[in-house]
Amino acid sequence: MTSATATKRVCFQLTVRPELLDEYIARHTPVWPEMLAEIAASGRRNYSLFLGEGGRLIGYYETDDDEAAQAYLAGSDVAARWEAEMGRFFVGLEGRPDQAATPLTEIFNLHDQLAAARGTATDTTEEGTAS
After folding, report:
1. For the chain, which terminal residue's Cβ has fewer other Cβ atoms within 10 angstroms, N or C?
2. pLDDT at site 104
3. Is 109 contained in some domain?
4. Tally of domains within the chain
5. Segment 21-77, tens digit of pLDDT
C-alpha cells in the first residue's frame, strides 16, 4: 500500500571506465557545492553512490516526484555543466548520465514488507528509475 505522497526510492547502475576510477572518485570528493544545491533543490534526498569491482557504480536516492526532479535537473545549467564533464567517465552511455542511467527494479524492501505484515500503510513505493 502506498500513500498519495509516497516517497519513491530510485536505484540505478552505471559502469565507470576502469582507467578513470581514481579521477572519478576524486571528482566526488567533494562534488561542487552548487551541484549539491541543485540536487537538493530538485527534491532528491538521501542520495548515495556506491562503487564496486570493475567500475560498477550503483546510485540510490529518494524523492517525492522523480519526473519533476529529473525535469528540474535537465533544465539546470549547473547540472548540464556537471553532467557534460561526467559523461566521459562511463562505459556504453549515450546522453547525460543523470538522464540515461540504467534503472534497477526494487524487489524487496524491509520497511514495506514489515508494514504490510502488520497491516499498516507505508510511505514508500517499490520501483525506481534514475540518473
Report:
1. N
2. 95
3. yes
4. 1
5. 999 999 999 999 999 999 999 999 999 999 999 999 999 999 999 999 999 999 999
Catalytic residue set: 28
Residue 49: give its domain's CATH number.
Answer: 3.30.70.100
CA distances from 69 to 40, 86, 112 (A): 9, 19, 23
For residue 128, tell me if it sits in a domain.
Answer: no
Owning domain of residue 16: 8-118
User: CB under 8 Å to 127, separation ≥6 — which residues?
Assistant: 8, 105, 106
Q: Is residue 128 pLDDT above 60, yes or no?
A: no
The sheet with strand 8-15 has its strands ordered as 45-51, 56-63, 8-15, 102-103
Can you say whether the dihedral through the CA atoms of 111, 14, 49, 31 is positive or negative?
Answer: negative
Is residue 3 pLDDT above 70, yes or no? no
What's the confidence (pLDDT) of residue 123?
55
Amino acid at site 76? S
CB atoms within 10 A of CB 36: 13
